[in-house]
Protein backbone atom coordinates (compact mmCIF):
# COMPACT_ATOMS: atom_id res chain seq x y z
CA UNK A 1 0.00 0.00 0.00
CA UNK A 2 2.81 2.39 0.95
CA UNK A 3 4.64 1.68 -2.33
CA UNK A 4 1.48 2.33 -4.37
CA UNK A 5 0.92 5.66 -2.61
CA UNK A 6 4.52 6.68 -3.38
CA UNK A 7 4.05 5.82 -7.04
CA UNK A 8 0.81 7.82 -7.19
CA UNK A 9 2.57 10.74 -5.50
CA UNK A 10 5.48 10.69 -7.98
CA UNK A 11 3.04 10.37 -10.88
CA UNK A 12 1.02 13.38 -9.74
CA UNK A 13 4.14 15.36 -8.88
CA UNK A 14 5.16 15.27 -12.55
CA UNK A 15 2.04 16.94 -13.88
CA UNK A 16 1.85 19.37 -10.95
CA UNK A 17 5.49 20.45 -11.45
CA UNK A 18 4.71 20.96 -15.16
CA UNK A 19 1.75 23.19 -14.20
CA UNK A 20 -0.54 20.72 -15.97
CA UNK A 21 1.31 21.40 -19.23
CA UNK A 22 0.49 25.08 -18.72
CA UNK A 23 -3.18 24.41 -19.41
CA UNK A 24 -5.03 27.68 -19.96
CA UNK A 25 -8.48 26.25 -19.15
CA UNK A 26 -7.57 25.53 -15.50
CA UNK A 27 -7.78 28.34 -12.97
CA UNK A 28 -4.28 29.81 -12.85
CA UNK A 29 -4.41 30.68 -9.16
CA UNK A 30 -5.29 27.10 -8.24
CA UNK A 31 -2.43 25.79 -10.41
CA UNK A 32 0.05 28.24 -8.91
CA UNK A 33 -0.92 27.57 -5.28
CA UNK A 34 -1.02 23.81 -5.79
CA UNK A 35 2.33 23.82 -7.57
CA UNK A 36 3.95 26.03 -4.95
CA UNK A 37 2.84 24.01 -1.91
CA UNK A 38 3.47 20.59 -3.48
CA UNK A 39 6.91 21.52 -4.82
CA UNK A 40 8.01 23.32 -1.66
CA UNK A 41 6.71 20.48 0.53
CA UNK A 42 8.68 18.01 -1.59
CA UNK A 43 11.80 20.17 -1.38
CA UNK A 44 11.55 20.46 2.44
CA UNK A 45 11.14 16.71 2.92
CA UNK A 46 13.82 15.89 0.34
CA UNK A 47 16.34 18.27 1.93
CA UNK A 48 16.45 16.05 5.03
CA UNK A 49 18.34 13.47 2.96
CA UNK A 50 20.57 15.90 1.04
CA UNK A 51 23.78 14.91 2.83
CA UNK A 52 23.11 11.20 3.38
CA UNK A 53 25.10 9.96 0.37
CA UNK A 54 28.28 10.60 -1.59
CA UNK A 55 29.74 9.76 -5.02
CA UNK A 56 27.89 9.63 -8.33
CA UNK A 57 25.77 12.72 -9.01
CA UNK A 58 25.32 13.70 -5.36
CA UNK A 59 27.81 16.60 -5.33
CA UNK A 60 26.58 18.21 -8.60
CA UNK A 61 22.96 18.13 -7.40
CA UNK A 62 23.98 19.50 -3.99
CA UNK A 63 25.83 22.39 -5.66
CA UNK A 64 22.93 23.25 -7.94
CA UNK A 65 20.32 22.95 -5.17
CA UNK A 66 22.21 25.11 -2.66
CA UNK A 67 23.06 27.72 -5.32
CA UNK A 68 19.39 28.11 -6.22
CA UNK A 69 18.38 28.45 -2.57
CA UNK A 70 21.14 30.96 -1.74
CA UNK A 71 20.30 33.04 -4.84
CA UNK A 72 17.24 34.35 -2.99
CA UNK A 73 19.60 36.04 -0.50
CA UNK A 74 21.44 37.64 -3.42
CA UNK A 75 18.19 38.92 -4.93
CA UNK A 76 17.54 40.74 -1.67
CA UNK A 77 21.12 41.98 -1.26
CA UNK A 78 21.72 43.14 -4.85
CA UNK A 79 18.24 44.07 -6.07
CA UNK A 80 16.11 44.58 -2.96
CA UNK A 81 13.71 41.82 -3.97
CA UNK A 82 11.92 40.49 -0.87
CA UNK A 83 11.98 36.83 0.14
CA UNK A 84 8.28 36.43 -0.68
CA UNK A 85 8.81 37.49 -4.30
CA UNK A 86 11.97 35.42 -4.56
CA UNK A 87 10.37 32.33 -3.07
CA UNK A 88 7.34 32.54 -5.35
CA UNK A 89 9.53 32.92 -8.44
CA UNK A 90 12.33 30.53 -7.45
CA UNK A 91 10.02 27.68 -6.37
CA UNK A 92 9.58 26.61 -10.01
CA UNK A 93 13.34 25.87 -10.24
CA UNK A 94 13.83 24.35 -6.78
CA UNK A 95 12.75 20.73 -7.23
CA UNK A 96 16.34 19.42 -7.47
CA UNK A 97 16.46 17.96 -3.89
CA UNK A 98 13.83 15.43 -5.06
CA UNK A 99 16.88 13.50 -6.31
CA UNK A 100 17.85 12.74 -2.69
CA UNK A 101 14.32 11.69 -1.73
CA UNK A 102 14.23 9.23 -4.64
CA UNK A 103 17.56 7.78 -3.49
CA UNK A 104 16.19 7.41 0.04
CA UNK A 105 12.95 5.76 -1.11
CA UNK A 106 14.75 3.59 -3.71
CA UNK A 107 11.96 3.97 -6.25
CA UNK A 108 12.35 1.11 -8.79
CA UNK A 109 13.85 2.27 -12.08
CA UNK A 110 11.30 0.27 -14.04
CA UNK A 111 8.50 2.15 -12.25
CA UNK A 112 10.00 5.52 -13.18
CA UNK A 113 10.40 4.38 -16.78
CA UNK A 114 6.69 3.56 -16.95
CA UNK A 115 5.77 6.98 -15.53
CA UNK A 116 8.08 8.74 -18.01
CA UNK A 117 6.74 6.77 -20.96
CA UNK A 118 3.13 7.40 -19.90
CA UNK A 119 3.76 11.15 -19.82
CA UNK A 120 5.66 10.94 -23.11
CA UNK A 121 2.58 9.43 -24.77
CA UNK A 122 0.34 12.01 -23.06
CA UNK A 123 2.61 14.79 -24.39
CA UNK A 124 2.16 13.43 -27.93
CA UNK A 125 -1.63 13.22 -27.61
CA UNK A 126 -1.98 16.71 -26.15
CA UNK A 127 0.40 18.22 -28.71
CA UNK A 128 -1.59 16.87 -31.66
CA UNK A 129 -4.85 17.88 -29.98
CA UNK A 130 -3.52 21.43 -29.60
CA UNK A 131 -2.23 21.37 -33.18
CA UNK A 132 -5.66 20.32 -34.45
CA UNK A 133 -7.17 23.22 -32.47
CA UNK A 134 -4.45 25.79 -33.15
CA UNK A 135 -6.99 28.62 -33.27
CA UNK A 136 -7.58 28.17 -29.51
CA UNK A 137 -4.70 28.32 -27.04
CA UNK A 138 -5.28 25.38 -24.70
CA UNK A 139 -1.71 24.71 -23.54
CA UNK A 140 1.24 27.07 -23.16
CA UNK A 141 1.29 30.40 -24.90
CA UNK A 142 2.06 31.69 -28.40
CA UNK A 143 5.51 33.08 -29.14
CA UNK A 144 3.82 36.30 -30.22
CA UNK A 145 0.25 37.52 -30.35
CA UNK A 146 -2.84 35.92 -28.85
CA UNK A 147 -2.97 32.72 -30.90
CA UNK A 148 -0.61 30.24 -32.53
CA UNK A 149 0.45 31.56 -35.91
CA UNK A 150 2.39 30.28 -38.88
CA UNK A 151 6.14 30.79 -38.49
CA UNK A 152 9.03 29.19 -40.38
CA UNK A 153 6.55 27.45 -42.68
CA UNK A 154 4.47 25.82 -39.93
CA UNK A 155 1.96 26.55 -37.21
CA UNK A 156 4.53 26.86 -34.45
CA UNK A 157 3.47 25.44 -31.12
CA UNK A 158 6.25 25.11 -28.53
CA UNK A 159 4.38 22.62 -26.39
CA UNK A 160 5.11 22.78 -22.62
CA UNK A 161 6.81 19.90 -20.79
CA UNK A 162 9.24 18.86 -23.51
CA UNK A 163 11.75 17.43 -21.00
CA UNK A 164 9.62 14.41 -20.14
CA UNK A 165 8.88 13.81 -23.83
CA UNK A 166 12.56 13.94 -24.78
CA UNK A 167 13.49 11.51 -22.01
CA UNK A 168 10.69 9.17 -23.12
CA UNK A 169 11.84 9.02 -26.75
CA UNK A 170 15.41 8.31 -25.64
CA UNK A 171 14.04 5.44 -23.53
CA UNK A 172 12.19 4.27 -26.66
CA UNK A 173 15.26 4.13 -28.91
CA UNK A 174 17.21 2.32 -26.17
CA UNK A 175 14.42 -0.28 -25.77
CA UNK A 176 14.35 -0.82 -29.54
CA UNK A 177 17.98 -1.94 -29.64
CA UNK A 178 17.47 -4.01 -26.47
CA UNK A 179 14.77 -6.01 -28.32
CA UNK A 180 12.11 -5.24 -25.74
CA UNK A 181 8.86 -7.19 -26.14
CA UNK A 182 6.97 -3.94 -26.85
CA UNK A 183 9.41 -3.07 -29.63
CA UNK A 184 6.79 -1.87 -32.13
CA UNK A 185 5.26 0.53 -29.62
CA UNK A 186 8.72 1.98 -28.95
CA UNK A 187 9.36 2.29 -32.68
CA UNK A 188 6.15 4.32 -33.00
CA UNK A 189 7.15 6.63 -30.15
CA UNK A 190 10.68 6.97 -31.59
CA UNK A 191 9.28 8.00 -34.99
CA UNK A 192 7.07 10.61 -33.34
CA UNK A 193 10.23 11.77 -31.56
CA UNK A 194 11.54 12.80 -34.98
CA UNK A 195 8.30 14.20 -36.38
CA UNK A 196 7.28 16.46 -33.47
CA UNK A 197 10.57 18.43 -33.25
CA UNK A 198 10.33 19.16 -36.98
CA UNK A 199 6.72 20.29 -36.56
CA UNK A 200 7.78 22.66 -33.77
CA UNK A 201 10.55 24.06 -36.06
CA UNK A 202 12.91 24.72 -33.15
CA UNK A 203 16.47 24.31 -34.38
CA UNK A 204 18.13 23.06 -31.20
CA UNK A 205 15.24 20.64 -30.58
CA UNK A 206 15.58 19.18 -34.07
CA UNK A 207 19.39 19.07 -34.09
CA UNK A 208 19.69 17.64 -30.56
CA UNK A 209 17.21 14.80 -31.15
CA UNK A 210 18.55 13.92 -34.61
CA UNK A 211 22.16 13.81 -33.39
CA UNK A 212 21.31 11.53 -30.45
CA UNK A 213 19.29 9.20 -32.71
CA UNK A 214 22.13 9.09 -35.21
CA UNK A 215 24.73 8.34 -32.52
CA UNK A 216 22.61 5.62 -30.89
CA UNK A 217 21.90 3.66 -34.05
CA UNK A 218 25.36 4.29 -35.53
CA UNK A 219 27.75 3.43 -32.67
CA UNK A 220 27.28 -0.35 -32.49
CA UNK A 221 27.23 -1.10 -36.23
CA UNK A 222 29.90 -2.79 -38.31
CA UNK A 223 32.18 -0.70 -40.52
CA UNK A 224 30.14 -1.52 -43.63
CA UNK A 225 26.86 -0.59 -41.96
CA UNK A 226 28.39 2.59 -40.56
CA UNK A 227 29.41 3.59 -44.10
CA UNK A 228 25.91 2.87 -45.39
CA UNK A 229 24.28 4.80 -42.54
CA UNK A 230 26.59 7.78 -43.10
CA UNK A 231 25.81 7.74 -46.81
CA UNK A 232 22.08 7.47 -46.20
CA UNK A 233 22.21 10.24 -43.59
CA UNK A 234 24.19 12.58 -45.88
CA UNK A 235 21.89 11.80 -48.79
CA UNK A 236 18.79 12.36 -46.67
CA UNK A 237 20.12 15.70 -45.46
CA UNK A 238 20.80 16.82 -49.04
CA UNK A 239 17.29 15.84 -50.08
CA UNK A 240 15.76 17.72 -47.13
CA UNK A 241 17.88 20.83 -47.67
CA UNK A 242 16.85 21.00 -51.32
CA UNK A 243 13.23 20.07 -50.74
CA UNK A 244 10.22 22.37 -50.86
CA UNK A 245 8.96 21.36 -47.42
CA UNK A 246 7.93 24.69 -45.82
CA UNK A 247 9.10 23.72 -42.32
CA UNK A 248 12.57 22.72 -43.52
CA UNK A 249 12.89 25.83 -45.66
CA UNK A 250 11.78 28.00 -42.76
CA UNK A 251 14.41 26.55 -40.40
CA UNK A 252 17.18 26.92 -43.02
CA UNK A 253 16.25 30.54 -43.77
CA UNK A 254 16.29 31.47 -40.08
CA UNK A 255 19.67 29.76 -39.62
CA UNK A 256 21.18 31.56 -42.60
CA UNK A 257 19.86 34.90 -41.33
CA UNK A 258 21.30 34.37 -37.85
CA UNK A 259 24.70 33.36 -39.23
CA UNK A 260 24.84 36.55 -41.31
CA UNK A 261 24.04 38.65 -38.24
CA UNK A 262 27.08 37.31 -36.36
CA UNK A 263 27.73 39.45 -33.26
CA UNK A 264 24.59 41.46 -34.05
CA UNK A 265 22.46 38.37 -33.39
CA UNK A 266 20.22 39.27 -30.47
CA UNK A 267 21.05 36.14 -28.46
CA UNK A 268 24.77 36.85 -28.74
CA UNK A 269 24.22 40.40 -27.49
CA UNK A 270 21.98 39.17 -24.66
CA UNK A 271 24.55 36.56 -23.67
CA UNK A 272 27.34 39.13 -23.52
CA UNK A 273 25.18 41.46 -21.44
CA UNK A 274 24.16 38.85 -18.86
CA UNK A 275 27.76 37.64 -18.61
CA UNK A 276 29.52 40.97 -18.24
CA UNK A 277 27.16 43.88 -17.45
CA UNK A 278 24.14 42.47 -15.65
CA UNK A 279 25.44 41.78 -12.12
CA UNK A 280 25.65 45.01 -10.04
CA UNK A 281 28.46 43.82 -7.74
CA UNK A 282 31.22 41.21 -7.31
CA UNK A 283 29.16 39.04 -4.95
CA UNK A 284 26.42 38.74 -7.57
CA UNK A 285 29.06 37.79 -10.14
CA UNK A 286 29.95 34.87 -7.87
CA UNK A 287 26.66 33.83 -6.24
CA UNK A 288 24.18 35.07 -8.84
CA UNK A 289 21.38 37.62 -8.77
CA UNK A 290 18.43 35.36 -8.02
CA UNK A 291 15.31 34.79 -10.10
CA UNK A 292 13.36 38.01 -10.86
CA UNK A 293 9.65 38.10 -10.11
CA UNK A 294 8.73 39.32 -13.58
CA UNK A 295 6.89 42.63 -13.63
CA UNK A 296 6.13 42.52 -9.87
CA UNK A 297 9.21 43.39 -7.81
CA UNK A 298 11.55 46.25 -8.74
CA UNK A 299 14.00 43.60 -9.97
CA UNK A 300 11.24 41.99 -12.03
CA UNK A 301 10.19 45.34 -13.47
CA UNK A 302 13.80 46.02 -14.48
CA UNK A 303 13.85 42.70 -16.37
CA UNK A 304 10.54 43.56 -18.03
CA UNK A 305 11.92 46.91 -19.22
CA UNK A 306 15.09 45.20 -20.42
CA UNK A 307 13.03 42.84 -22.56
CA UNK A 308 10.92 45.66 -23.97
CA UNK A 309 13.81 48.00 -24.79
CA UNK A 310 16.56 45.54 -25.78
CA UNK A 311 14.72 42.22 -26.30
CA UNK A 312 17.09 40.53 -23.83
CA UNK A 313 15.52 37.44 -22.28
CA UNK A 314 17.11 35.02 -19.82
CA UNK A 315 15.26 32.17 -21.52
CA UNK A 316 17.24 32.83 -24.73
CA UNK A 317 20.68 32.31 -23.21
CA UNK A 318 20.40 28.94 -21.46
CA UNK A 319 23.36 28.19 -19.22
CA UNK A 320 24.27 31.89 -19.12
CA UNK A 321 20.89 32.46 -17.46
CA UNK A 322 21.87 29.86 -14.85
CA UNK A 323 25.03 31.87 -14.17
CA UNK A 324 23.14 35.19 -14.05
CA UNK A 325 20.52 33.88 -11.61
CA UNK A 326 22.34 31.22 -9.56
CA UNK A 327 26.07 31.97 -9.90
CA UNK A 328 29.32 30.17 -10.61
CA UNK A 329 28.74 27.26 -8.20
CA UNK A 330 25.59 26.26 -10.10
CA UNK A 331 27.63 26.38 -13.31
CA UNK A 332 30.28 24.21 -11.65
CA UNK A 333 27.52 21.78 -10.64
CA UNK A 334 26.27 21.49 -14.21
CA UNK A 335 29.85 21.15 -15.48
CA UNK A 336 30.55 18.32 -13.04
CA UNK A 337 27.24 16.68 -13.97
CA UNK A 338 28.15 16.66 -17.66
CA UNK A 339 31.70 15.51 -16.93
CA UNK A 340 30.33 12.54 -15.00
CA UNK A 341 27.94 11.75 -17.85
CA UNK A 342 31.03 10.98 -19.96
CA UNK A 343 33.10 9.09 -17.38
CA UNK A 344 30.55 7.14 -15.30
CA UNK A 345 29.51 3.86 -16.89
CA UNK A 346 25.88 2.79 -17.00
CA UNK A 347 24.27 -0.48 -18.19
CA UNK A 348 23.25 -0.51 -21.86
CA UNK A 349 19.59 -0.78 -20.94
CA UNK A 350 19.86 2.64 -19.24
CA UNK A 351 21.95 4.41 -21.89
CA UNK A 352 19.08 6.83 -22.43
CA UNK A 353 20.09 8.81 -19.33
CA UNK A 354 23.41 9.69 -20.98
CA UNK A 355 21.55 10.79 -24.10
CA UNK A 356 19.24 13.04 -22.10
CA UNK A 357 22.14 14.75 -20.28
CA UNK A 358 24.01 15.17 -23.57
CA UNK A 359 20.89 16.69 -25.12
CA UNK A 360 20.83 19.24 -22.28
CA UNK A 361 24.50 20.00 -22.93
CA UNK A 362 23.91 20.44 -26.65
CA UNK A 363 21.00 22.85 -26.14
CA UNK A 364 22.42 24.61 -23.07
CA UNK A 365 23.65 27.77 -24.83
CA UNK A 366 20.45 28.82 -26.55
CA UNK A 367 17.55 27.24 -24.66
CA UNK A 368 16.17 27.10 -21.13
CA UNK A 369 16.29 23.30 -20.96
CA UNK A 370 18.96 23.37 -18.24
CA UNK A 371 16.87 25.14 -15.59
CA UNK A 372 13.22 25.57 -16.64
CA UNK A 373 10.38 23.77 -14.88
CA UNK A 374 9.43 22.17 -18.20
CA UNK A 375 12.64 20.12 -17.86
CA UNK A 376 13.68 19.97 -14.19
CA UNK A 377 11.72 16.89 -13.11
CA UNK A 378 12.83 14.94 -16.19
CA UNK A 379 16.44 15.90 -15.41
CA UNK A 380 16.03 14.69 -11.81
CA UNK A 381 14.59 11.37 -13.01
CA UNK A 382 17.49 10.94 -15.45
CA UNK A 383 20.08 11.71 -12.76
CA UNK A 384 18.45 9.34 -10.26
CA UNK A 385 18.30 6.47 -12.77
CA UNK A 386 21.88 7.17 -13.86
CA UNK A 387 23.17 7.38 -10.28
CA UNK A 388 21.41 4.27 -9.02
CA UNK A 389 22.15 2.06 -12.03
CA UNK A 390 25.78 3.22 -12.13
CA UNK A 391 26.32 2.58 -8.41
CA UNK A 392 24.67 -0.85 -8.65
CA UNK A 393 26.83 -1.76 -11.64
CA UNK A 394 29.93 -0.65 -9.72
CA UNK A 395 28.94 -2.91 -6.79
CA UNK A 396 28.43 -5.86 -9.13
CA UNK A 397 31.80 -5.19 -10.77
CA UNK A 398 33.43 -5.27 -7.32
CA UNK A 399 31.61 -8.52 -6.44
CA UNK A 400 32.64 -10.10 -9.75
CA UNK A 401 36.24 -9.02 -9.22
CA UNK A 402 36.26 -10.49 -5.71
CA UNK A 403 34.72 -13.75 -6.94
CA UNK A 404 37.25 -13.95 -9.76
CA UNK A 405 40.12 -13.23 -7.36
CA UNK A 406 38.83 -15.85 -4.91
CA UNK A 407 38.38 -18.35 -7.73
CA UNK A 408 41.90 -17.73 -9.05
CA UNK A 409 43.39 -18.03 -5.55
CA UNK A 410 41.49 -21.26 -4.85
CA UNK A 411 42.53 -22.64 -8.21
CA UNK A 412 46.21 -21.91 -7.54
CA UNK A 413 45.96 -23.51 -4.10
CA UNK A 414 44.36 -26.63 -5.50
CA UNK A 415 46.92 -27.03 -8.31
CA UNK A 416 49.82 -26.47 -5.94
CA UNK A 417 48.50 -28.89 -3.29
CA UNK A 418 49.63 -32.15 -5.02
CA UNK A 419 53.16 -30.78 -5.35
CA UNK A 420 53.40 -30.11 -1.64
CA UNK A 421 51.94 -33.54 -0.83
CA UNK A 422 54.44 -35.17 -3.13
CA UNK A 423 57.32 -33.41 -1.36
CA UNK A 424 56.06 -34.61 1.97
CA UNK A 425 55.76 -38.18 0.66
CA UNK A 426 59.29 -38.13 -0.76
CA UNK A 427 60.65 -36.90 2.54
TrEMBL record:
Record keywords: Membrane, Transmembrane, Transmembrane helix
Segments traversing the membrane: 7-26, 32-51, 63-81, 93-109, 116-134, 154-173, 185-215, 227-248, 312-336, 356-386
The protein's name in its UniProt record: Uncharacterized protein
Organism in which the protein naturally occurs: Cyclobacterium jeungdonense
Lineage start: Bacteria, Pseudomonadati, Bacteroidota, Cytophagia, Cytophagales
Amino acid sequence: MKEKLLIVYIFLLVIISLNFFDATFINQKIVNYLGFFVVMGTVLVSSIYMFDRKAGFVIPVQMISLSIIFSMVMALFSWGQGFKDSLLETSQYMLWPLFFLLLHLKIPIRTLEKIILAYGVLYVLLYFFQYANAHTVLFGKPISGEEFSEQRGAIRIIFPGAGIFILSIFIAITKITQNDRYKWLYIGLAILGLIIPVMQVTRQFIAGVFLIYFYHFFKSQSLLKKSLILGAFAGGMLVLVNSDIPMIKGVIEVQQRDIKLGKDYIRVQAGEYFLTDFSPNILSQIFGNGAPNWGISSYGKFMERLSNTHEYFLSDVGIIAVYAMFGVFAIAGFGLMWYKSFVLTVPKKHQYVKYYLWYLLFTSLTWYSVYHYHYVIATIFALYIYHRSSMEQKKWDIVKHLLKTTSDTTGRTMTSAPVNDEKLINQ
